[in-house]
Amino acid sequence: MQHGVLSAGGHPTIKMAAPRSWALWSLCGRGWSPVLPGCRLPWLRSCWPSGPLGARPLSQEKRATETHFGFETVSEEEKGGKVYQVFESVARKYDVMNDMMSLGIHRVWKDLLLLKMHPFPGTQLLDVAGGTGDIAFRFLNYVQAQHQRKQKRQLRAQQNLSWEEIAKKYQNQEDSLGGSRVMVCDINKEMLKMGKQKACARGYKAGLAWVLGDAEELPFDDDKFDVYTIAFGIRNVTHIDRALQEAHRVLKPGGRFLCLEFSQVNNPLVSRLYDVYSFQVIPVLGEVIAGDWKSYQYLVESIRQFPPQEEFKEMIEDAGFQKVTYENLTSGIVAIHSGFKL
Ligand SMILES: COc1cc(O)cc(C/C=C(\C)CC/C=C(\C)CC/C=C(\C)CC/C=C(\C)CC/C=C(\C)CC/C=C(\C)CC/C=C(\C)CC/C=C(\C)CC/C=C(\C)CCC=C(C)C)c1O
Ligand SMILES: C[S@@+](CC[C@H](N)C(=O)[O-])C[C@H]1O[C@@H](n2cnc3c(N)ncnc32)[C@H](O)[C@@H]1O
């Protein structure tokens, strides 16, 4: 399925199973790609005659490369640059804005993504559109705690180890993750800069790497990772289908794709409140806290343009993933989609 086809936002309503997260809700819920905004290949393509002697009518050619940036219609070549500007602009206030806007709920959603992933010892994770590192840090905490529990069990089983051996086991930094590693990949230098600063301040070093790269053209070989995550990122990508194909390519056979993204609310009352909150409150908060109304208007508009749960599930299947499922959180405000490369 080709993403980028304009949809006016009026997606068909889909009936879904009652969300498991009501309790949570009521509690609160190939090579490097030095992509420069506006300097991408589609730009070249759009300048090139599309048929013999460029015979295809211009209007048809134009329509074929249009997409959306929020509610605005833009050319595919423009979109990447606009998205880049949004995240360059919000990077410094990104974390504080998320806590303010969601009253901290985004933290719970991200924790639930990790619970769903349930990484095994030695997991190689690729976190695309990883921004300021929220998923990567959670992953490192998770695998470290997992590894410590395992070590304690082993130590208890080997009562006859010397103190030196025990101390050595605890001191070995590299080993503290049990061989697990995470690679954060994002297209935006500013977001990565903020992420690296945060990592430094919090003492994350081992098992963590940062790479500048495009989800549509990942700078990694085939069959490299056990898990691919993308949280609140895929909505911003120009060609979602290409990003999904890339996710499939870089995963090892047996690897898992996990996507946390805004989705379609399945409760009419929540939906109304959510709309009021999104359009009346979020841009105001964006202006007051980050001095940036437009970026937060883009956020709420882009959420409405993203395909609903079932449609996105089909797109993931079209990219070659199997056993694709999704789980709604907070009445479908967000959903976690999962699929396997088998
Ligand atoms: C530029 O692009 C971006 C920038 C970013 O900073 C972030 C992202 C990507 C996003 C994330 C990483 C996730 C974190 C960010 C968000 C969750 C912000 C986006 C949020 C929404 C679009 C709405 C969802 C909001 C929540 C889940 C927070 C809870 C609030 C509601 C569900 C709506 C409640 C609405 C009302 C009660 C009516 C209107 C409210 C007012 C006029 C008063 C102000 C309201 C509040 C402060 C909310 C408190 C109320 C409740 C918790 C009660 C809710 C009860 C019910 C709905 C029954 C990015 O791409
Ligand atoms: C809303 S942030 C999400 C950050 C982080 N995953 C989180 O959950 O907080 C969206 C991120 O997607 C990145 N992004 C947008 N388009 C991208 C692309 N084509 N390839 C890689 N990253 C992209 C942005 O730079 C931004 O850092």
Structural features, described:
There is one protein chain. The protein has 342 residues and is an alpha/beta fold. It has 13 helices and nine strands. The strands form two sheets. It has a seven-stranded mixed beta sheet with strand order 5-4-3-6-7-9-8, with helices on both faces. It has a two-stranded antiparallel sheet with strand order 1-2. The longest helix is centred in the middle third of the chain and has 24 residues, at 134-157. It is globular. Mean pLDDT is 83; it is low at 1-60. The structure holds ligand LIM22CUA and S-adenosylmethionine. The ligand COc1cc(O)cc(C/C=C(\C)CC/C=C(\C)CC/C=C(\C)CC/C=C(\C)CC/C=C(\C)CC/C=C(\C)CC/C=C(\C)CC/C=C(\C)CC/C=C(\C)CCC=C(C)C)c1O is lined by residues 86, 90, 94, 97-98, 101-103, 105-106, 232, 270, 273-274, 276-278, 281-282, 295, 298-300, 303, 330, 333.
